[in-house]
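In the design runs reported in the main text, the only information available to the sequence generator was the tokenized backbone. The following block is the verbatim input for one such run; it is reproduced so that readers can re-run the procedure and compare outputs position by position.
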């Protein structure tokens, strides 16, 4: 693929994450139009959901801690950092992800054969395939980050186009050919096998095959707080679900909440891509100033078009929901509009600085406080506002978490918000979005 000048590490990583989202969206749409029944589609979705649930927090924690340690760690501090080098850090991170995958795999089998009675009907689809998929699929998530660390953004894009194009083929072709959802899962295994070949080639090219227990210990010291923080933060949506299902006996209320409790994916993916891509720059003091300037510039660019798009979507949310689903889900639009407000804390990035400077214990404290505040606040707001109150509590605690991290970066790290946040633009757009929400909520603006 010809090198594209407009592709850098940030846009390359953002692009591959968007490709991943679009791929699974296309698969979901095609499945609903295919011969597959609703239970069969449910099996597919539940398979993906459980595999992500059991691994997202430790995979993310290990990868993000690798990004911060790559350009500065105690174990290999004397290694000369060049644009392309054989990296023992990458190889040991691969060993760590593989070890976690094996532990989850073994633990899953132990639970399956010791705690579940033989012949019992479990609600988990294809549990043996699920465990093998978790074992095999997680290490290959390193691929795009190996390219990122070696400053090969065009290769990130190339990898995304090839691998997700192939995934569409391997997953959809069997279903279109008349087979069931299990054939689609076998398609996932096929693309995972291809990614393993790709990963092995990259490990041979970019990593030094050198086992270092000292680096693994250093990696875990930085990564474990992140793993726990992502686990706690990720559990918040399940806690909200428990609160709603306990409060309301009607499962339809729970479904109505779940259909609305979704962030605007473009905001989530682009923000996460920006944050992850910049972590290596914060790994050294020499790169801090450039990293802060880049973070401010790129977050300003995101705000310029994501805030207006979010406002446009908010304007038509109450019109769209009953037409996409049914009139019974009109209330879901109110939940969704509150989730659109999450763009306000999402597009400021104090956590990037905190994680990049390896202050990961702070992120763990912030996550623990977030869940501790979220539970009582949700219980308090659900009484006057119903399920919308639970969504409102989510916005409030996430906003407060970002304020806490901004304060920490300012007072403890001596980095003012204006150094990495386009403050005026952020405040103006945030005020406009909140005002629009209030006007829509009070029916002053009403598009049906």
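Verbatim output:
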């Amino acid at each position: 693929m010809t090198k594209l000048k407009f592709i850098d590490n940030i846009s390359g990583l953002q692009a591959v994450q968007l490709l991943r989202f679009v791929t699974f969206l296309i698969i979901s749409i095609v499945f609903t139009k295919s011969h597959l029944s609703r239970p069969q589609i449910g099996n597919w979705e539940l398979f993906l959901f459980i595999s992500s649930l059991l691994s997202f927090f430790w995979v993310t924690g290990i990868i993000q801690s690798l990004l911060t340690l790559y350009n500065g760690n105690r174990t290999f501090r004397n290694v000369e950092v060049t644009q392309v080098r054989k990296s023992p850090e990458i190889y040991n991170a691969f060993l760590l992800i593989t070890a976690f995958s094996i532990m989850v795999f073994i633990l899953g089998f132990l639970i399956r054969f010791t705690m579940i009675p033989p012949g019992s009907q479990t609600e988990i689809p294809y549990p043996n395939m699920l465990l093998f998929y978790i074992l095999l699929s997680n290490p290959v998530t390193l691929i795009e980050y190996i390219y990122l660390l070696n400053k090969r953004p065009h290769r990130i894009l190339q990898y995304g186009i090839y691998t997700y194009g192939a995934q569409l083929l391997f997953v959809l072709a069997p279903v279109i050919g008349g087979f069931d959802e299990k054939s689609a899962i076998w398609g996932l295994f096929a693309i995972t096998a291809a990614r393993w070949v790709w990963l092995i080639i990259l490990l041979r090219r970019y990593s030094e095959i050198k086992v270092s227990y000292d680096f693994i210990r250093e990696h875990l010291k930085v990564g474990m707080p992140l793993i726990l923080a992502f686990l706690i933060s990720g559990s918040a949506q399940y806690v909200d679900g428990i609160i709603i299902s306990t409060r309301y006996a009607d499962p339809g209320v729970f479904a109505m909440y779940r259909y609305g409790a979704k962030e605007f994916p473009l905001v989530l993916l682009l923000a996460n891509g920006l944050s992850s891509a910049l972590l290596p720059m914060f790994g050294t003091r020499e790169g801090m100033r450039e990293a802060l300037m880049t973070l401010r510039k790129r977050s300003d660019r995101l705000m310029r078009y994501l805030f207006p798009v979010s406002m446009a979507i908010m304007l038509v949310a109450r019109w769209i929901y009953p037409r996409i689903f049914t009139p019974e889900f009109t209330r879901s639009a109110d939940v969704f509009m509150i989730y659109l407000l999450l763009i306000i804390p999402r597009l400021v990035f104090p956590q990037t600085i905190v994680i990049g400077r390896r202050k990961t214990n702070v992120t763990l404290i912030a996550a623990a406080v977030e869940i501790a505040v979220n539970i009582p606040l949700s219980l308090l707001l659900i009484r006057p506002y119903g399920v919308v109150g639970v969504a409102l509590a989510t916005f409030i605690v996430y906003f407060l978490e970002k304020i806490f991290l901004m304060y920490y970066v300012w007072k403890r790290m001596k980095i003012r918000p204006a150094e990495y946040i386009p403050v005026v633009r952020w405040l103006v757009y945030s005020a406009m979005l909140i005002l629009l929400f209030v006007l829509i909520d009070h029916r002053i603006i009403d598009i049906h």
